[in-house]
Request: fold
Amino acid sequence: MIKKVLLTSLMATSLASSLSATEDMEKWLRPSEVPQPKDNKITPKRVELGKLLYFDTRLSSTGKVSCATCHHPKRGWTDLEAVSKAVGINGERGPRNSPTVMNSAYQKHQFWDGRARTLEQQALGPIEADVEMNMPLEVLIPKLNKIQGYKKLFAKAYPQSKGEITEKYLAKAIASFERTAVSGNTPFDKYIKGDKKAISAEAKEGFKIFKGKANCVSCHEGFNFSDGSFHNLGMTDGQLAGKDVGRYAVKRRAAWYGVFKTPTLRDVAISHPYMHDGSVKSLEEASRICNEGKFPHVKNFSTQVQNKDLTDDDYTKMVSFLKTLTTENKTKIPTNFPQ
Ligand code: HEC
Ligand code: HEC
Reply:
């Protein structure tokens, strides 16, 4: 009898621990199904069309800029510029660092201030923005409709369009391609799946510190390393007049003053520089700011930022871990565009 009880309780414990191990594993692995709207399911034809549009510089006023200029797959889907280079007539720069497009399909909010919800809503913005592609849609849509090759591809990808290219179908096609920009098979993912040798001992310790002592997961949570929420790390000294007020520009609530979206940390080793303003060059410095804040006394500073007195060694280990999050990119860059 005693034996039986002991056995059942032993089984219960081992079952419980293996369950929590699976739960933990699932949390860090990207769900294989990519979220997609009912009226724009991912199909190979839509992806192929969206990819051509994504790389096509004819979508900009100067004919020199495409989405890939600022979100290139080989550069962690970013541009490596502090703040993105403009095509505006004066060559002015936009105010913000270009975020990675990777895993944006899984995000509830797009942009640093979360002003767009879906990729379809997002896609047309940069085409028209004067600091991005500077191409009014009233000019672009007729221009695209003169390209017979595109008309055919739209007719195949979206039969209801009958080959008539409209803003709606343009946005849908680009969003379809973006939904294929997803993370996977990084050394970290391999490690989570059970390959204990996939990452170094230093990186393993870094991951432990990231989840434990440093509590980075209070904001950088789950497979995409983001809570999808917004925080104020005191990136500016509080004098925000004429500066970037973050989410407050979208929703005028005091709590949103100077807050920015928690970015994914996927591909972070190759998507420098960092933060919404691109002011930070290294992973270590970005991590330090997240732990201590840059100007920690500003109004509305996040209460989730709590200095954990991390050592230099803790940072070295965490940076080593962050470097295991880079997805090998196999995107073939198109060279032939529809005529
Ligand atoms: C000149 C550089 C530039 C070009 C060209 C550009 N973007 Fe962006 N993109 C940015 C910047 C900068 C942001 C952040 C802006 C903000 O948060 O206000 C951004 C944000 C995004 C986001 C949101 C990502 C996130 O995590 O919040 C997506 C998705 C995106 N761009 C896709 C595209 C697509 C699709 C195109 C082409 C139609 C494009 N971009 C063209 C610079 C650019
Ligand atoms: C309070 C929430 C919060 C915590 C806790 C936090 N971060 Fe962040 N992290 C953010 C936000 C928000 C940003 C972007 C801030 C901005 O641009 O204004 C960011 C940016 C970063 C970046 C730069 C990414 C990029 O693409 O620009 C890195 C790297 C980073 N965090 C690592 C860490 C590490 C390591 C820890 C633990 C020591 C940590 N973070 C803790 C919210 C947090």
